[in-house]
Amino acid sequence: MANRIPRSSSCFFIFLLLPLLLQFCSGKSDLQLNYYSESCPRAEEIIKEQVINLYHKHGNTAISWLRNIFHDCMVKSCDASLLLDNAPGMESEKNSARSFGMRNFKYINTIKQALESECPGTVSCADIVALSARDGVVLLGGPEIEMKTGRKDSKVSHAADVDSLIPNHNDSMSSVLSRFQSVGIDAEGTVALLGGHSVGRIHCINFVDRLYPNADPTLNPAHVEYLKRRCPSPKPDPKAVEYSRDDLATPMVLDNLYHKSILDGKGLLIVDQELASDPLTSPFVQKMAADNDYFHDQFSRALLILSENNPLLNDEGEIRKDCRFANKN
Ligand code: HEM
Ligand SMILES: *[C@@H]1O[C@H](CO)[C@@H](O)[C@H](O)[C@H]1NC(C)=O
């Protein structure tokens, strides 16, 4: 009798094991912190080293990594479908109109090669998309974000769905909000994420319709004159290199100057400007413009939700050997 475990404590023991057992039986594990701790212990360090090296050579790579996570995770799943090249019968998402201006894809291969030489076939391209964005944000003066890993890569591109899943520059705020809502991001998170436009550039073709033939009255009139000098042609060639920025003062820093600028009528895209004027979003814009720490907290929260959108787990996807191509089986 003396060495029998009391019934109440054995029940408690089973209760503790239950989630583990369930996970074991279903054979499915969720995203987790340090997913590669045993299979490739230096994975996260390697990615960070490469992101830092690339940033010192080409500062705008960090900006590209941030745009990448949006364009990958917003389209069905954070599955690196964005990175696939054209293949027979398969159009690349990179060629879609919404991907206009995206750059630096070739340097993803630099990161992938560093991982392949240490741990072949182990770290997914989808996790590279997520962690490179996370590490890029820090280099851009943004917040540090703890991200889970374990995403698998898709075998197919979702090019045909890009237009319906990534908002256009002139969409209504209600449609933008419902797109973000459908991946679990509320209005406050949307206002924070659009703060991504605090870094990088926007080509004239995306906003000349607000300058010519008549200036959009919601644009700051002095800014219209400035932008007309930046964008002299009312019908720029899609290959034209002229651009401006939402944050002219610190375009390499992820700060709340974006929110200040759109309140000043200097948002370039219609969606930028709507964010400042729509009653559902403008209170958050004002609060972020006044408080950079609050912006960063909300940005972290929303980027994390985005980064966990519908990941492919276990055998739902593969670990691509080259981020540009599905593996040949
Ligand atoms: C309604 C949602 C959004 C729309 C319509 C939109 C649209 C655009 C457009 C048209 C450009 C300019 C491309 C060019 O002319 O080269 C751009 C640039 C950019 N976007 Fe967005 N965007 C949205 C949300 C986001 C989000 C959520 C992020 C990230 C958190 C993001 C990150 C960026 C970055 C970093 C750039 C600059 C890229 C560079 O300089 O290479 N965008 N976006
Ligand atoms: C939005 O911009 C696209 C070009 O990107 C254009 O084809 C379309 O007509 C515009 N829509 C509206 C409602 O202005």
From TrEMBL:
Transmembrane helix listed as a keyword: no
Signal peptide per UniProt: 1-27
Subcellular location: Secreted
Coiled coil: none
Record keywords: Calcium, Disulfide bond, Glycoprotein, Heme, Hydrogen peroxide, Iron, Metal-binding, Oxidoreductase, Peroxidase, Secreted, Signal
Primary location recorded for the protein, binned into one broad class: secreted
CC cofactor note: Binds 2 calcium ions per subunit.
Record EC number: 1.11.1.7
Span of domain Plant heme peroxidase family profile: 30-327
Reactions that this protein is recorded to catalyse: 2 a phenolic donor + H2O2 = 2 a phenolic radical donor + 2 H2O
Requisite cofactors: Ca(2+); heme b
Function: Removal of H(2)O(2), oxidation of toxic reductants, biosynthesis and degradation of lignin, suberization, auxin catabolism, response to environmental stresses such as wounding, pathogen attack and oxidative stress.
Protein family: Belongs to the peroxidase family. Classical plant (class III) peroxidase subfamily.
Protein name: Peroxidase
Organism phylogeny: Eukaryota, Viridiplantae, Streptophyta, Embryophyta, Tracheophyta
